[in-house]
Write a structure and sequence with these properties.
GO terms for molecular function: aspartate-tRNA ligase activity; aspartate-tRNA(Asn) ligase activity; ATP binding; nucleic acid binding. By secondary structure, the protein is α+β, with helices and mostly antiparallel strands. It has 16 helices and 24 strands.
Length: 591
């Protein structure tokens, strides 16, 4: 017999009754029923109940066993009495009578229990992550993650892609976040950067004549943490294709993503058609470029109904250039109590409030109520109701100003309304391609800068760059799912003359472009093919599939909110020897 086990803790069935077996695993739970000891023995695969009574030669040793000890037992398989069968376990029809025991690893007092799914402070969970990972929910998430990665690989290979690895130490590049820098011992005063993405390398792979590339790629960005974003590193399904247009990329990645969500989505509905929504339309209707289409609410511009009206706040606001009023329909939200709750939400977002109208029974049919209704009169409120297709028992909320200043709040309000009124379908995955992103934006100081990926091809190529930069759209696209950005990509700018012009509009002269991206620019002068691709965030995909709200629940060893690894003690102070070798000196933080 094997030194540690003849079977796993998920293997045994009634057909094994009467056989001698050896199991190994962790003590999940110990129960004493009148002198008979019952132990739930757990390993990676499952759980088996083992029992011991005073007739066993190792009863005293078994009495000493505690939760999370790692043990090996020998015993005989017995059938459970019909009244004691546990239908929740695959091994629930049998149990193993212990005849021999070996303690493989004792456990001290536990800082958090493994049995059950109690909610413990995140600091404790991360410091003792190796224990936290033994808990069934988190353990299942990690297995799901492994299965998803394998599935994605198989689907990419099935579409004729080859997997290639790109460097981890590289040069710094503007990907929209801070780089992690690595000092060079051989080149004092110079630094490598950990790649924010394999962007330049995968484009160079296309120039090198490899037609279809993919990689399960680690990416490193020094970012502020969020619930759906790691503050240090993440993994993505990275892909690139030659001789393609935007729709070719969509047609390639859609079945990969759809198939994965169908396989691991737990029976939830998955969209078969991924609609295309322009960036401008998404901002208008949903207040975000990653809309949650499970929520049917679409915002609309209703400025004409407030212009010159008795509601002076909106009427005077609309006299200024670039302003408008938008309505957020709220089917079934037509009560003063709900409207007051949403008003409180707006105040929590830093606004003085949010105007509203709700419709109820009146003497002549549907009657508008609320402060706005009194100010603008029945004719205008009826026109608003007709435009929004609302009726008795419904409401609408209103925000006004420059869209860039209120769209974010409006989008969050739309989400809250959909959740509170039960309009958001929780049993599906709703996808949408967001397209036609603006290439440029004005920064806080009024200068033109790239709004997204600087390596994208502008729609209209060189001709488009001759006009107003803020009107230029790029062949850039994101795939949104349930309110999260899941995939991001672009058709690349592979022509040096267009690249120099595009960067010049953002304030980079040709010399700086050559200095920062010399390898890629040089390669493009030797017959670069048209190419494009995208990257899908694996951590975020698994988070959605596992129905988790925090990305740390699907990462094996995540950092905490302060970008610290509490278990391993990172980041840590370097030794004096390390600093001398690198020619570095650490200065105290500025006060």
């Amino acid at each position: 017999m094997h030194a540690y086990r003849s079977h796993t803790c998920a293997d045994l069935r009634p057909s094994d009754v009467g056989t001698e077996v050896r199991l190994a695993g962790w003590v999940h739970r110990v129960r004493d029923h009148g002198g008979v000891l019952f132990i739930d023995l757990r390993d990676h695969y499952g759980m088996t109940q083992v029992i011991c009574d005073p007739d066993s030669p190792v009863f005293k040793e078994v009495e000493a066993v505690r939760s999370e000890w790692c043990i090996r037992i020998d015993g005989s398989v017995k059938a459970r009495d019909a009244s004691l069968v546990n239908p929740k376990l695959p091994t629930g029809e049998i149990e193993v009578y212990i005849r021999d025991l070996e303690v493989l690893g004792r456990a001290g007092e536990l800082p958090l229990p493994v049995f059950g799914e109690q909610d413990y402070p995140e600091e404790t969970r991360l410091r003792y992550r190796f224990l936290d990972l033994r808990r069934q929910g988190l353990h299942d998430n990690m297995v799901l993650r492994s299965d998803v990665v394998r599935d994605l690989r198989e689907r990419m290979w099935g579409q004729g892609f080859n997997e290639y690895q790109t460097p981890i130490l590289t040069a710094s590049s503007p990907e929209g976040a801070r780089d992690f820098l690595v000092p060079s011992r051989l080149h004092p005063g110079k630094f490598y950067a950990l790649p924010q993405a394999p962007q330049q390398f995968k484009q160079l792979i296309m120039v090198s004549g490899f037609d279809r590339y993919f990689q399960i790629a680690p990416c490193f960005r020094d970012e502020d943490p969020r619930a759906d974003r790691s503050p240090t590193d993440f993994y993505q399904l990275d892909m690139e294709m030659s001789f393609v247009e935007q729709e070719d990329v969509f047609a390639t990645i859609e079945p990969v993503v759809r198939g994965c969500f169908e396989r691991f989505g737990g029976g939830r509905k998955v969209d078969q058609v991924f609609p295309r929504i322009s960036y401008a339309e998404a901002a208008l209707k949903y207040g975000t470029d990653k809309p949650d289409l499970r929520n049917p609410i679409e915002m609309q511009v209703v400025s004409e109904h407030f212009a010159g009206s008795g509601f002076k706040i909106f009427a005077e606001l609309l006299e200024k250039d670039g302003t408008e009023v938008r309505a957020i329909p709220a089917p079934k939200g037509g009560s003063r109590k709900f409207c007051d709750r949403m008003n409180k939400f707006a105040q929590g977002e830093g606004l003085p409030g949010m105007g509203y109208i709700f419709w109820r029974d009146g003497e002549d049919g549907v009657e508008a109520a609320g402060p706005l209704a009194k100010n603008i009169g029945p004719e205008r409120t009826e026109a608003i109701r007709q435009q929004l297709s609302l009726g008795k028992g419904d409401a609408a909320f209103f925000l006004g100003g420059r869209p860039s200043e209120f769209e974010g709040v409006a989008g969050r309000a739309r989400t809250v309304i959909g959740e509170e009124l039960g309009l958001t379908d929780k049993d599906c995955f709703a996808f949408a391609w967001i397209v036609d992103f603006p290439m440029y934006e004005r920064d806080d100081e009024g200068r033109i800068d790239f709004s997204h990926n600087p390596f994208s091809m502008p729609q209209g190529e060189m001709e488009a760059l001759e006009g107003d930069p803020l009107e230029v759209k790029g062949y850039q696209y994101d795939l949104a799912c349930n309110g999260y950005e899941l995939v991001s990509g672009a058709i690349r700018n592979h022509r040096p003359e267009i690249m120099f012009k595009a960067f010049a509009l953002a304030g980079y002269d040709e010399a700086e472009v050559r200095a920062r991206f010399g390898g890629m620019v040089n390669a493009f002068t030797y017959g670069a093919p048209p190419h494009g691709g995208c990257a899908a965030g694996i951590d975020r995909m698994v988070m959605l599939l596992a129905d988790e709200q925090n990305i740390r629940e699907v990462i094996m060893f995540p950092m905490n909110q302060q970008a610290q690894d509490l278990m391993m003690g990172a980041p840590s102070e370097p030794t004096a020897t390390q600093l001398r070798e690198l020619g570095l000196r650490v200065l105290p933080p500025a006060k």
